[in-house]
Every structure is written in structure tokens, then in C-alpha cells.
Amino acid sequence: MLLVEIFLFTSSWAGTISYSAGFAIWGCYLVGKKIWITSILLQMDKSWMLEDRRSRAYELGVEAFLKFAVENARNENRIPCPCWECGNTKDFGIGIIKGHLFSYGITPNYQNWIWHG
């Protein structure tokens, strides 16, 4: 897995993003010695969704997914549960969702995370 470190500077924020997935950057320009990025698209690794729920890969994938979901949630205390039983139709806290993902697995056809960012 490739770990990408991106230095991002915008008019309202400057910082570093570490991301281990595919990505695309467009709309960047050089000012002095800094690259200003105006648009970025990050593609999260979703291969873990098909792994055995007892595997380390699945565990790490669940953790990354939940972190991503909370960062992109309108309400970080309750988000749609993507488990096989709930199918994004019920909202819960992260702890319950984590339990559901290990008990029931994630809905396998939920490849476009429209409810989680």
C-alpha cells in the first residue's frame, strides 16, 4: 500500500495530508517554492470490504472507513450504518456501527460511499 503525503495550502488552510490510497490532483500552480493545490480527489482503498471479517485487513479497513465517515459526516455522533443488515437505512453511533460491521459485514455492493462523504 502506497502512503502519499500531500502538502496542501489554500487561502483558509495549510497543512499536510497523509493518505494511503489512490489520488488525483488537478488545478495546482507553483508560487515561490510552494505548490498551491486548488482541487484534490482522494480514492480510498475499498478492497478490505471483500476480506474475511476476522482478518487484519478488514479490521484496518473498518477503522479507516469509520474515520473517513466521521470526518465527512453532517452529524458525527450518528451516521448511516452500511452493514449488511442495516444497508444505510438506520443511523447509529460509531461504536454500534463498528460492531455491526464485524458481526454482519459491510454491504458488498456499497462501492460509491454516497452516505459517508
Automatic annotation (TrEMBL):
InterPro entries: Transpos_assoc. The chain crosses the membrane at residues 6-31. Residues 46-117 form the Transposase-associated domain. Keywords: Membrane, Transmembrane, Transmembrane helix. It comes from the Eukaryota. This is Putative Transposase-associated domain-containing protein.
